[in-house]
């Protein structure tokens, strides 16, 4: 079995702590299901104060900033995978009607630009780009819900 160990910038860890503290605060004010509904679909609920949605937007911006800080590593890892798998890369490029495949094609634009609400990825995806584990630092789940993810 292949394992992947990754390290993140100290600033990413600081942003993760700040993000998770904000998520804990939000969980005291509103159900996390409603937070995720807003993050994934933009749906607001009338019974939730607008200040909560403002806070979610602030946390989303913080999350995206941190994820984008790690994307150069993700992009490099994905490009190495594409270079090592030319047949797969050629199929991907043809599917997108391009001459060459890109990390965006492989992993998705929303993932590469830090806007995906994903909490994590498949083991196969982590083998392609181990640094995607940064998404696990920025999950839209409160501590009391984390056990549901395993």
What report would you give on this structure?
The chain is mostly helical and 150 residues long. Helices cover 60% and strands 0% of the residues. It has seven helices and no strands. It has helices at 10-29, 32-41, 50-84, 86-95, 103-107, 109-112, 123-128. α1 (10-29) packs antiparallel against α3. The longest helix has 35 residues, at 50-84. The chain starts with 9 loop residues before the first helix and ends in a 22-residue tail after the last helix.
Question: What can be said about this structure in brief?
Answer:
It contains seven helices and no strands. It is an all-alpha fold and 150 residues long.
- What is the β-strand count? 0
Rg, Å, rounded: 17 Å
Mean pLDDT: 91
Principal-axes geometry comes out as elongated
Order of helices and strands: HHHHHHH
Strand content: under 5%
- Report the biggest beta sheet as strand number plus sense, adding barrel if it closes: none
- Structure classification: mainly alpha
Query: Spans of 5+ residues with little confidence (pLDDT < 50)?
Result: none
Q: Helix amount, in percent?
A: 55-70%
In whole angstroms, the N-to-C terminal distance is: 19 Å
Number of helices: 7
Topology:
Layout lengths: L9 H20 L2 H10 L8 H35 L1 H10 L7 H5 L1 H4 L10 H6 L22
């Amino acid at each position: 079995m292949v394992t992947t160990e990754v390290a993140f910038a100290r600033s990413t860890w600081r942003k993760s702590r700040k993000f998770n503290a904000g998520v804990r605060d939000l969980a005291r004010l509103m159900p996390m299901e409603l937070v995720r509904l807003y993050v994934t679909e933009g749906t607001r609920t009338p019974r939730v104060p607008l200040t909560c949605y403002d806070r979610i937007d602030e946390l989303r911006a913080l999350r995206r900033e941190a994820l984008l800080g790690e994307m150069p590593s993700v992009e490099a890892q994905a490009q190495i995978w594409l270079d090592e798998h030319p047949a797969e890369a050629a199929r991907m490029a043809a599917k997108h009607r391009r001459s060459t495949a890109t990390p965006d094609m492989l992993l998705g634009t929303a993932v590469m630009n830090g806007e995906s609400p994903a909490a994590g990825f498949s083991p196969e995806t982590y083998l392609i780009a181990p640094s995607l584990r940064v998404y696990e630092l920025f999950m839209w789940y409160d501590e009391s819900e984390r056990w549901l993810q395993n």
